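Complex 353.
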Amino acid sequence: MSDHCPTLRRNGDQVIILDQTRLPWQEVFVCLDTLDDAATAIRDMQVRGAPLIGATAAFGIALALRNNASDAALQAADACLRATRPTAVNLHWALDRMQAALRPLPAAERSAAAWAAAEAIQSGDAAANAAIGHHGLGLLQALAANQNQPLHVMTHCNAGWLATCGHGTALAPIYAAHAAGIEVHVWVSETRPRNQGLLTAWELARAGVPHTLIADNAAGWLMAEGRVDAVITGADRIAANGDTANKVGTYLKALAARAHDIPFYIAAPRSTVDFNCPHGRAIPIEERSADEVRIIQGLDAAGLPAGIRLAGPTTAACNPAFDVTPAGLVAGIICEFGVFPADGLAAIAGRQA
Ligand code: MRU
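Predicted structure with MRU bound:
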């Protein structure tokens, strides 16, 4: 398994996070003390990835209720956290769960219950990751049996342990395959503009999983050349019909995979499925700052983290952070309950995350 250190952990009545804006150059842990700290960490992407955003929001409620657990304080904390990022539905799922656990309780009992509920969300996500790894391993074993190893799997963004509370979603089957002795090699697309692919490369390097970083635009050509056996990505919100929002660029990979007859899988826990959302057009897509496109983060000549300007401040830039892959392009959705056809999610509608 991966060399996995927690991205988020409780420390008494505080929360410690690994600041992902400093990776892959620096490993810096940051202490969250207040509701505002938690909301800022989510908004500024110190924590990121749908399941981790949900867990951080849950701990944000616990931080908020430490000194005031009134109805008004609970409501204000909920509203503040819900407004941080729009696309990942795990945020709303986690906050709904916190509300359901805390609302019925007298204020005096809410603080302890909030910590317990947040920790349950965290451990539940870790368990879901493990089950996704197990089910995805079956798919990778079947693919590996049909060909000479190594198995070349492409992923996009980061859907590993940095994005979750366990071993990840899209990366969980890869870690499981590596642990099972399957020779697996991962194509890691850099994922402009925030370059979450660098996080994936950093994770895979720590776990000793062979991988190669590519420019996003190289994905189609590698598929055309027969150098990709499967694509697995995570998800931020899956509509009831199986249309899936994930990091921008996922859709292009799914289109190219279909053109070359390569299976394209989504790996995500039940908490990422939004049965209130009928189809992909109804998924809110986050638009982030144009400066994320104009200015790239890296190391300067002195080896220190710095922003490097690529385009002038007057260059118009558009930055949708996610796109939607239609269900018809998805070979299967790997969740903690098994592998389902994208148009067959009704089978898990009644099951709790
Ligand atoms: O903007 P981010 O970095 O939070 O986006 C993350 C993704 O799109 C991930 O692929 C998705 O959340 C799945 S994480 C297990």
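Residues 48-51, 88, 157, 159, 163-164, 168-169, 196, 233-236, 246-247, 321 surround MRU (CB under 6 Å).
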